[in-house]
Amino acid sequence: MENYVFGRNNVIELLQNSNRTVSKIIIADGSQNNSKVNLIIQLAKQNGILFQILPKEKFTKFNSYSHQGVIAYVSPVKFVDLYEFLNIDKNNKKVIILDGIEDPHNVGSIIRSAVCAGFDAVIFPSRRNAVINSTVEKSSAGAVNRLDLIMVNSLAATIDKLKDNNFWIIATDIHSKDNYYDIDYCNMNFAIIMGSENSGVSATLLKKSDFRIKIPMLADFNSLNVANAAAVVIFESVKQTLQNRKDVV
Amino acid sequence: MENYVFGRNNVIELLQNSNRTVSKIIIADGSQNNSKVNLIIQLAKQNGILFQILPKEKFTKFNSYSHQGVIAYVSPVKFVDLYEFLNIDKNNKKVIILDGIEDPHNVGSIIRSAVCAGFDAVIFPSRRNAVINSTVEKSSAGAVNRLDLIMVNSLAATIDKLKDNNFWIIATDIHSKDNYYDIDYCNMNFAIIMGSENSGVSATLLKKSDFRIKIPMLADFNSLNVANAAAVVIFESVKQTLQNRKDVV
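The joint structure predicted for all components is written out below.
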């Protein structure tokens, strides 16, 4: 399958910060004077990447994506092997595990939050989860190139392997007693499991977790969108990390 | 314009918790045995609402929405007048102000987070902001019916009015010094301004704000998705409220 990256900021991010192969960039005629498009043309020239100025009509079939007149043809997102990731010598690794998230916008948006928060990897199962496609890439604002994406056959086996490698496993679960801010995210390797939009984290994975946390609500309403819930938990860990650093100083 | 509510959970939420007029519900033939669809049929009967079982083909034109074979025809979302809202006798009112959020998924998702967090209202401008449509309603998981939606002509004038009525104004701004967790959200009326996806909160509104806050990042990456950023700030206020209550006890 051919892969695309849509939109000016995403293509700039791709050209500046990813190691993926760009085979071609197409640019809508008339947009060359825009400063971002200009930067894209410069970067393409510097990197010896083919670019074509095409009439706007050529972009019609991509109009369901917000391409802003810029589309890059790229090699697929690179996946990292779980063992390779575990072998990287680093303290306090931080990981998100996606347990059956179906909406690619949610997947992309969670990857974006994870990158902003300095997380190291996102792990997702090869089945029953959105695949990493152009929509995920666009929703991630290009963040898919900034951390390790790890696709696994069994999340249960992966969690066992993470535990063997000194990871603490934190599952989000609306039925849990503990709140997300009651646990300490500092000075440890941890993985946060986010569950599917409809049924949450699966029972098998909940059982394997060291902590179960919920986000307490102030109204009797169903629940947060999963990407928003992920952001809340992820940034609690960032806050603790920053406050912890201050304590040391 | 005819308004629609798509999807099983959303229609249940509509029938159970909103005061909007439902003129008709259409249900795809073959789904009657599903427990949620069954509940919808029961609720429709109880409330004397017309429902029709139609062949699946009739739903084709709505297939870009995830309707799950259930669509309700409804009166438009009800807006509340700003003065009416200000006259409600209540302490510690909590409001979100949307300053030019363009993506209806983001608008819906922010409304959902606000409802979960017990916020009272979402204020948005009549221009340069996504309108409240079916996509917003769907992304909000029906939350649009659970708080006051206030549409205003001028956000600047609205903020002046809020300040006259004892509201503290908090603007999110990636250039600010203070972090979102450095301010105290308890025991006051406050409004949090979320800025547009591309340019953030406008300069005029920043100037009028009492506090400017940022969400600190741990990586050199652009920024969070605006709905995720809203969730992080909104739930910091929830956490403080809950911890404050505990302190009192």
